[in-house]
What does this fold into?
Amino acid sequence: MFGILAERLRQGHRTISYPQGSPQLPDRFRGLPVLDSTKCPDGCQICADACPTDAILCDDKSLRLDLGRCLFCTECTAACPAGAISYSQDYRLATRSRDDLITDGRALELARALDEKTRRLFGRSLKLRQVSAGGCNGCEADVNVLSTVVFDLGRFGIQFVASPRHADGLLITGPVTNNMKFALAQAYEATPSPKIVIAVGACAISGGPYINHDEVHNGADGVVPVDLYIPGCPPHPLTILDGLLRLLGRLEESPTGAPQSPR
It folds into this structure.
């Protein structure tokens, strides 16, 4: 007993301080891609041809990238001779609209909060049913880690529940395989209204590496309406947490651009 207490004291406080201040991320972290169209030679398609999911669009000297398709694999950065694409350490990627995930290098339109009536319902207590619609367990693992002591999702009033009938919404991962389409639709119907739907990861947004395969439906919004898109392959737990808190109106930006909790 005393040994356990001593070890607990030795370990100290393990929960990260986020959203108070900016989190510390490793140097190899790949966040929001940075695009520089001025470095693109006329008609160059090298980076677009290297992308395994056709996430890069090049036309008329314009360079755009679809974060909903991007696997953050760096095939484009390795192929581009001019260095027109690089990765920042900005973990904030979630948007409310699918179109907002297409970036030309300018600041993303980050996820807006739900309307006031919905925030009153879910802002302090949100129960989610996680549905793996054919995922590889990458996004699922990073969703699960949010419930550990490091991130402690419960301190924000967000919890995962075992049944859609007990949930306020669905958090979906995976490309929605043919085998899971009906199950996902049923889970959505079983969730009481009003409800929200969150698509996590490239697969749940666009089909990811399986895009346009005969056995998948290219993401969740072909089956159910989606309220929040969180890109990545898989998205970092902080990216997921940031998106959830923005949706609930639980984040405000400080003058330095760092997130902070208004409550």
